[in-house]
Design brief:
310 residues, alpha/beta, Nucleotidyltransferase, domain 5, 2 domains, five-stranded mixed β-sheet, 10 helices, globular, binds zinc ion, ROK
Length: 310
């Protein structure tokens, strides 16, 4: 029996990665390649980074193995129909034809592109904390806040490919301005950097999410208030999303989700205020079931789990 792999590509604001992923959702050891991206790079330099990781991943293909196709997860916004991407933090790429770039590097191979949040939801549903649930939101709380939806067992992208942008749901009681033009978007309140910035404005003097976590554990009142505030905002956003689409489970990953396990308690407390609506309070909010390979596994799921990709 020959081995079958999908090429997974994950394009983010600081790096692009590619790897080979097998049909059980495991990244092949030694097949993971990384190149830098970032706002300071030109359009051609970003393309060079993508081509570099694709060349690398092809060299890692075991002899006799088959390639089924390539799945590409990209930071949003995306233009799914045309395979174009406009990642907020990669200013040189606006409506950039990323899918065409990958097709050119991998001729005669199927290539599927989706927003990275959708890939995370797919990965949680496939091999992560969302296994056994068919109405799942995958969520990342990191330098930004992103997400994606699996509803009735299928991904939901919407007509442009950007459904599930939970980071830009506005939450009541907050007036933090957001880069998108909104006021009180959950990303503008509760991302790692925004939580740190709020704590700094209250007089806390650290500079990273890790330091904030350490202060939290030490009982620092400002750090405690900052984490509680972010958890409340995330919980309000999840409660609103659940009111809208009746979610069963939300799996949260990303660096800042690890600031303290108490973050999840603050999230759940905010959701519990909707006590009259059992269909809202039922939503389970759990840490990601994925390793740091999650974004790549999700991109590979666009190929291996194509039957549930809407
Ligand atoms: Zn926003």
């Amino acid at each position: 029996m020959s081995l079958e792999f999908a090429i997974a590509v994950d394009l983010g604001g600081t790096k692009v990665e590619a790897a080979l992923v097998d049909p059980s959702g495991v990244v092949l050891a030694g097949s993971r390649f990384r190149a830098p991206t970032g706002p300071e790079r030109s359009a051609d330099e970003l393309a060079d980074s993508v081509n570099e990781v694709l060349r690398g991943v092809l060299t890692a293909l075991p002899s006799g193995a088959t390639l089924l196709g390539a799945g590409v997860g990209s930071a949003g916004p995306v233009n799914e129909a045309e395979g174009r991407v406009s990642p907020l933090n990669l200013e040189a790429w606006r409506q950039y034809p990323l899918r065409d770039l990958v097709v050119a590097a991998l001729p005669s191979m199927p290539v599927t592109l989706r927003m990275d949040g959708i890939c995370i939801a797919l990965a949680e549903h496939w091999v992560g904390a969302g296994r056994g649930y068919d109405n799942v939101m995958g969520m990342i709380v990191s330098t930004g806040i992103g997400g994606g939806l699996v509803l009735h067992g299928n991904t939901v992208s919407g007509p442009t490919g950007n459904a599930g942008h939970i980071g830009h749901v506005e939450v009541a009681g907050f007036d933090d301005p957001c880069l998108c033009g909104g006021i009180g978007c959950v990303e503008a309140i509760a991302s790692g950097p925004k939580t740190v910035a709020w704590a700094n404005r209250q007089g806390w003097t650290g500079s990273t999410g890790e330091e904030l976590g350490a202060s939290y554990r030490a009982g620092d009142p400002i750090a405690r208030a900052a984490v509680e505030r972010s958890g409340r905002a995330i919980g309000q956003a999840i409660a609103s999303a659940t009111a809208l689409v009746d979610l069963e489970l939300v799996a949260i990953g990303g660096g800042f989700s690890l600031v303290t396990p108490d973050l999840f308690d603050h999230i759940r407390t905010a959701i519990a205020t909707r006590w009259q609506f059992e269909f809202v309070t039922k939503v389970k909010v759990v840490p990601t079931g994925l390793s740091s390979d999650g974004p790549l596994i999700g991109a590979a799921a666009l190929i291996h789990r194509a039957n549930v990709v809407g």
